[in-house]
């Protein structure tokens, strides 16, 4: 056993933040975990919560990627439930988010697909996938 081998550095943490933590931030958490959980720990949270994740988001993410967000343990949660994070990504809710300590902060400016057609919803999901891959899957 080589005791001189370098220790594996801890994974960076990222949190996706949206007002109700029921749609875009949940989709981002699910896709980020799917594509980059080997490199990062991912979370999502909101300033308020809904009783459950948006059911169109649950249905479409399952249809498109085979990911069942609810069975994987995702649920809406408040910012206070987050551990310390390195990266904060807001979804573009057009509200002023409370301060959350982090090393990096960005806003993805995504439209809320809640109540819109499946086609519009899927366009937002695909944009989230693109942004997740671009931000977290580069070598």
Order of helices and strands: EHEHEEH
Shape: globular
Could you tell me the number of beta strands? 4
Q: What structural class results from the helix and strand content?
A: alpha/beta
Strand order of the largest sheet: 2-1-3-4
Major β-sheet profile: 4 strands, parallel
Question: What is Rg?
Answer: 15 Å
Q: Cα distance, first to last residue? A: 29 Å
User: What is the number of helical segments per DSSP (H or I, 4+ residues)?
Assistant: 3
Detail the poorly predicted runs. Answer: none
Strand content: 5-15%
Overall pLDDT metric: 91
How much helix, percentage-wise, in residues? 25-40%
Task: Write a concise keyword list for the protein shown above.
139 residues; alpha/beta; four-stranded parallel β-sheet; 31% helix; 14% strand; globular
